Amino acid sequence: MAGTAAPPALPPWGNALAGATGAVLANAIVYPLDIVKTRLQVQVKRKETDHKPLTMNDAHYTSSLDAIKKIFEDEGITGLYSGINGSLLGVTSTNFAYFYWYSTVRSLYLSSQTVPRSPGTAMELSMGAVAGAIAQVFTIPVSVITTRQQTQPKGDKKGLLDTGREVVHSDDGWTGLWRGLKASLVLVVNPAITYGAYQRLRELLFPGKANLRPWESFLLGAMSKALATMATQPLIVAKVGLQSRPPPARQGRPFRNFIEVMRYIVKHEGSLALFKGLAPQVTKGIIVQGLLMMTKERMEILFIVLFAYLRRVRDSKLQQMANAAAVRAKEVMPLVAK
């Protein structure tokens, strides 16, 4: 008895489009959290001995809820969506590039195997890191511009292109669009930490259980994502500090690397400040990760059905063209015979 045919695999750009679509929808839903975590991460507490402000915004936020309240009161509802166009453009380009290169690298790996077999955990993580690194190189300029937009004071809001020009016309020149690249490349370990923590927590909390319930999987995913975020939060904060405008207290001198950002934060606020914005960062990560994978899977199914339909339409048209060519050939043949 013939087995059921497996659904056709999506091409790399199909996987990329599905992943980018899911990422855009997920990030658009939680975008105010993105604003809040960025504002919390770039602010530095001001001491009485400080003569100049240490942050670009006058308001100081004590928590996520306080940030949402003050941003809404000062800038209105649009303040919670400042820079959303650039952010969604960055999300689209980053996720499209990531899923495209991941699918491409995975396909190349599988085609190089003499005996077809699925890659192991280490190889999967390595391919994900390679894809993430390539995606960051091509898409980090949009991230730099978005971070600048999210931290611009109320009276100095600029559009995507104007903010980009501001970055290019700074002391860094064009290279300023790639500020924070080293930190971004290091942060590709975040998924590896998430996956490793997921497996370890599963062994501890649900030993010997082959199939997990949806709530159990969500719990493990949330806990592992939280652990990965806490482990990499200092780098995340440093990356945001690199990509935003330098604080007025530095008199326009940008940070040279993420180590300098960390030292500046520790000097003015202490070591715990390297974890500021952790709550909205974790909350956003958990929600986005869940919505992204849920939406991506459904988009993949939609694209598979769409591609199958387009193939049928194409095959039908090709068959019609072949039949028409055969009829014309039959009509011509008697004339040639005469």
Describe this structure in words.
The chain has helices spanning 12-29, 31-42, 64-75, 84-112, 121-150, 160-168, 181-186, 190-205, 214-243, 258-269, 278-337. With 338 residues, it is an all-alpha fold. Mean pLDDT is 77; it is low at 1-8.
Distance N terminus to C terminus? 53 Å
Structural class of the helices, strands and pairings?
Answer: mainly alpha
Low-confidence spans: pLDDT under 50, at least 5 residues? 1-8
- Estimate the mean pLDDT confidence: 77
Describe the structure in brief.
The protein has helices spanning 12-29, 31-42, 64-75, 84-112, 121-150, 160-168, 181-186, 190-205, 214-243, 258-269, 278-337. The protein has 338 residues and is mainly α.
Sum up the structure in keywords:
single chain; mainly alpha; 11 helices; globular; disordered N terminus
Question: What is the element layout, followed by pairings?
Answer:
Layout: H1 12-29, H2 31-42, H3 64-75, H4 84-112, H5 121-150, H6 160-168, H7 181-186, H8 190-205, H9 214-243, H10 258-269, H11 278-337
Helix pairs in contact: 1-4, 1-11, 2-11, 4-5, 5-6, 8-9, 9-10, 9-11
